[in-house]
Amino acid sequence: MINGWMTLTKCLSSFYVLSGLLGCFVLTLSSCSYEGGNEQPVIRKFTWFSYIAAEDIKATCLRGSKTQYRFVYNGVYNEQVRTYDITQVESDRYNIKISVTEEADISSYPLDINNPDFFEPWKPKISVTNVSAKDIGVLRQTLKDAGYFDSLPPSGKLSSINFYWVISTCMDGKFHQNAYYWPDKKFKTAEFPNLLRIWDFTEIPINPPRSTSKLSIYGTTETKYFRNHFNLNFGRNGFLRQNFVK
Questions:
Q1: Which one of 157, 159, 178, 227 has the lowest number of neighbouring Cβ atoms within 10 Å?
Q2: pLDDT score at 170
Q3: Are the C-beta atoms of residues 187 and 210 closer than 8 Å to each other?
Q4: Is the pTM of this model over 0.85?
Q5: How far lies 40's CA from each of 34, 92, 232, in Å?
Q6: Of the candidate ranges 102-116, 167-181, 182-196, 229-243, the one whose mean pLDDT is the lowest
Q7: pLDDT tens for each residue of 146-162
């Protein structure tokens, strides 16, 4: 947590001299490295691309490293984002931290005057549990069955107003990344979401895929009203990168 806030402080200080909050936000999104603390709304905003690209996992994925998995479900970015961080803590035990962020409902937020937390409406619902190495073996098999290890990532853009999974792993000292987007067949037939659902105790149902458009999400076709609109795509190296859209 401390590292996360320190990272945010460093990133913000670099852009205080810029005029306009939007310019600061866009530049900072592409510059801040994720170092933890994504349960804090401000940190999550400023380090999102680093987080979803799993730069922190990639940087520490060396021979002898513990196994790590990161699943990110984009159910329209402004509506619902689900993250699943799975880390090996012992040879036969894994920790799973699940975080679900939805659109903030400020209208029903009870503010504690004595101890105000103005970011509370934007904080995610978090669930933490442990599973066995055998369970993770089943998860790994579902990824193998879905072509995670031996298929190329999507060649098209992953839009923030669409539905997709981005998965990053460190196994046996090797970093790997892939994605599944709706309505592609691989998305529909993948079994890993069903397994993740069993371990999810947030009690928040997944936002089901549907056809979307800029008009249906933003209520307008004027780009100046597009909030949190961005694309992701995979580079020639097979790893995720961001592409801002305005």
A1: 227
A2: 98
A3: no
A4: no
A5: 12, 30, 23
A6: 102-116
A7: 999 999 999 999 999 99
